[in-house]
């Protein structure tokens, strides 16, 4: 009686599992999205599902530009010198900030000569003198104030000979908000003897690029494709400065201001995807970190495919197909590996609404207008690959064989 019960149970289990696996081979419904992906009104028009018949080609860029807000700074031709805010000239040059280490040499005077650190209040405090403002000021400006202070305090009748030299640049804390991938307060800079060429650091005129605006933007993930680079705002000491960074992005304007502790950077959004910003630049993301999954054919596992445990990095500006190739989803034997599907999981950084895009890889590879439907990958995106029908059936046969063997053993 016990044996007669186990045999039909094993057979039923095998049949049920086989039926379930066969259902799994069937086509699944395409992912639903809140954003109007089909009409090309998602974050990227490239998210659209490819049409079988197409009369126009390469229209995704013009579709992306349609909702763009006007450039705050206007066109490149009319943008310079038209800001309503303060002039930008005070921003240029080397400025001191809190915790910078300086050396003061007053010729023939050991009382005031020595090393000083800019205080939390942004001052230099010398013996017997009132504090001298240093935050946001250049070395020549501070030297001039020191001479005046020494005369005003009665220590000198004539301006003394003195030299101020920066020994070490401190780390600065800067807030970065708006159209960057990781808006937050960043800490940049710091040049110390254990990490820099001591001879260069100790030389007269030594400086640093580590406190520049471009460094802060990259530390905040880089500017997003919807950023308005014509009028990036710098909030400093109650003033708001607007800077046109299009030249920095293009490489035609090397100007890159030095930041101070307490500065706030605001990058406005144009509320649209700008294809021309999807390329490397001094203020773009250094690369794109993707989450990838390709668990079976043509690569039998992530370890042997040299895919990291969770993420992999591709160059900024890479597209979906490039990332799919990078995760070993393409290639191998055509009969078994063609007609695979890949899924792109992304998120609109403006609205924080997620989107899932499914593509038949081979169909996309063979379309002449593939660039219209080949999305750019963004930091934090995820890609998953599904095997072809032939591979699914082969795996189904393997599993049903194992279950059938188990059924026989149950007898």
UniProtKB/TrEMBL annotation:
<keyword id="KW-0732">Signal</keyword>
<feature type="domain" description="Polysaccharide export protein N-terminal">
    <location>
        <begin position="95"/>
        <end position="166"/>
    </location>
</feature>
<dbReference type="Pfam" id="PF02563">
    <property type="entry name" value="Poly_export"/>
</dbReference>
<dbReference type="InterPro" id="IPR049712">
    <property type="entry name" value="Poly_export"/>
</dbReference>
<dbReference type="GO" id="GO:0015159">
    <property type="term" value="F:polysaccharide transmembrane transporter activity"/>
</dbReference>
<protein>
    <submittedName>
        <fullName>Polysaccharide biosynthesis/export protein</fullName>
    </submittedName>
</protein>
<dbReference type="InterPro" id="IPR003715">
    <property type="entry name" value="Poly_export_N"/>
</dbReference>
């Amino acid at each position: 009686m016990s044996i007669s019960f186990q045999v039909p149970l094993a057979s039923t289990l095998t049949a049920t599992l086989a039926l379930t696996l066969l259902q799994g081979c069937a086509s699944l419904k395409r992912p639903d999205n809140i954003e109007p992906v089909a009409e090309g009104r998602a974050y990227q028009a490239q998210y659209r599902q490819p049409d079988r018949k197409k009369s126009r080609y390469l229209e995704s860029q013009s579709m992306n530009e349609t909702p763009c807000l006007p450039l705050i700074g206007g066109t490149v031709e009319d943008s310079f010198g038209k800001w309503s805010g303060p002039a930008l000239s005070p921003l240029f040059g080397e400025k001191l900030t809190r915790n910078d280490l300086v050396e003061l040499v007053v010729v023939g005077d050991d009382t005031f000569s020595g090393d000083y650190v800019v205080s939390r209040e942004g001052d230099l405090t010398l013996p017997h003198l009132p504090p001298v403002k240093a935050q946001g000021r250049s070395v020549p400006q501070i030297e001039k104030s020191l001479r005046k202070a020494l005369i005003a305090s009665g220590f000198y009748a004539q301006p003394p000979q003195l030299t101020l030299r920066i020994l070490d640049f401190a780390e600065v804390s800067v807030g970065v908000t708006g159209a960057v991938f990781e808006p937050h307060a960043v800490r940049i800079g710091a040049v110390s003897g254990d990490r820099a060429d001591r001879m260069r650091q100790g030389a007269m005129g030594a400086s640093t690029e580590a406190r520049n605006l471009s460094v802060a933007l990259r530390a905040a993930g880089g500017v997003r494709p919807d950023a308005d680079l014509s009028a990036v705002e710098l909030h400093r000491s109650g003033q708001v400065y607007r800077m046109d960074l299009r030249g920095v992005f293009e490489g035609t304007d090397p100007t890159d201001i030095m930041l101070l502790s307490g500065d706030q950077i605001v990058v406005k959004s144009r509320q649209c995807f700008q294809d021309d910003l999807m390329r490397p630049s001094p203020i773009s993301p250094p690369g794109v970190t993707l989450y990838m999954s390709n668990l079976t054919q043509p690569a039998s596992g992530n370890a042997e495919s040299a895919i990291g445990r969770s993420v992999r990095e591709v160059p900024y500006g890479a597209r979906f197909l490039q990332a799919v190739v990078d995760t070993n989803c393409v290639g191998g034997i055509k009969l078994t590996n063609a007609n695979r599907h890949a899924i792109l999981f992304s998120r609109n950084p403006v609205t924080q609404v997620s989107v899932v895009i499914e593509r038949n890889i081979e169909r996309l590879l063979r379309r002449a207008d593939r660039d219209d439907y080949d999305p750019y990958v963004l930091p934090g995106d995820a890609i998953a690959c599904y095997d072809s029908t032939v591979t699914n059936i082969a795996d189904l046969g393997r599993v049903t064989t194992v279950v059938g063997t188990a059924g026989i053993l149950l007898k």
